[in-house]
Write a structure and sequence with these properties.
Blueprint (H helix, E strand, L loop, with lengths): L5 H17 L1 H10 L5 E6 L6 H4 L7 E6 L15 H12 L4 E7 L3 H7 L12 H5 L3 H8 L6 H20 L3 H8 L4 E7 L6 E4 L6 E2 L40
Parallel strand pairs: 1-2, 1-3, 3-4
Antiparallel strand pairs: 4-5, 5-6
The structure holds zinc ion (ZN).
């Protein structure tokens, strides 16, 4: 039996023969000098909403934490286990990221569960209900609004939860300090899986709007051609002894 699922090994082979081969020098520079990403993204675990894919990011460009429904818990140094807060601490205190993006997405299963806490649980387990209770007051307000359809409630809570998480980010003292000093900017974003529409939150009003992006009228395989992010510059791979592809078969 294979040590890893074959689909992963196939993907690994194509990574080593493709991206790694093209960007060998970049990977080596990152290994030697360490990472220095400017941007942290807090995204959902959902397999359809991977930030590196959506933003066309290469190695070293995004510091990403993913959790169920891309939530930020309030600052609570109580000795408990806090994975997202630990990632925030590292990103802000050690890496000194300049931007934190909370990115939600359409059709989020976690948000759906938060809207119908009495329905069948998302999974038989001990943790999701407690985790989603971060949204309890706002979820209750949205789910009791009978003027909205269920689809409208879903999208509304997906976006309101982003504002809630941004509020919770500001409960971390060092985040509030760095934001006040102008060293850190907080952003909200929402991605529609089926259309690839990206919406961004206006920091003044909290409203979501589509940022201006110059897209091809007929998007090809990837919306993010080239390298739009600001990270380590690619240096041409020397292509000689770097051909790990030989060993990946
Ligand atoms: Zn989700």
């Amino acid at each position: 039996m294979s040590l890893l699922p074959s689909v992963l090994l196939d993907g690994y082979r194509s990574f080593v023969e493709g991206r790694y081969l093209q960007e060998t020098q970049r990977y080596r520079t990152l290994a030697r000098e360490g990472q220095a990403p400017d941007t942290m993204v807090i995204a959902c675990c959902d397999s359809r909403a991977a930030p590196e894919t959506i933003f066309g990011a290469g190695a070293g460009e995004l510091f990403v934490v993913r959790n169920v429904a891309n939530l930020v818990p309030p600052y609570r140094p109580d000795g408990d286990f806090h994975g997202t807060s630990a990632a925030l601490e590292f990103a802000v205190q050690a890496l000194k990221v300049k931007h934190i993006v909370v990115m939600g997405h359409g059709r989020c299963g976690g948000i759906k569960a938060a809207l119908s806490p009495d329905a069948e649980p998302l999974s038989p387990g001990d943790f999701i209900g407690k985790w989603m209770s971060i949204l309890e007051p706002v979820a209750a307000a949205v789910s009791s609004n009978e003027l909205l359809t269920s689809g409208e409630r879903q999208t509304a809570l997906e976006r309101i939860s982003i504002r809630t998480s941004i509020g919770n980010l500001r409960s971390f003292p060092y985040i509030a300090e760095r934001e006040a000093a102008g060293d850190l900017t907080l952003h909200g974003a929402w991605f529609d899986i089926s259309t690839a529409e990206l919406w961004a939150m206006d920091n003044e009003s909290g409203d979501f709007q589509r940022p201006l992006v110059d897209l091809d009228p007929e998007p090809k395989d990837s919306l993010a051609a080239g390298d739009p992010m600001h990270g380590v510059k690619d240096e041409p791979a020397d292509g000689s002894e770097d051909a790990l592809s030989e060993g990946a078969n």
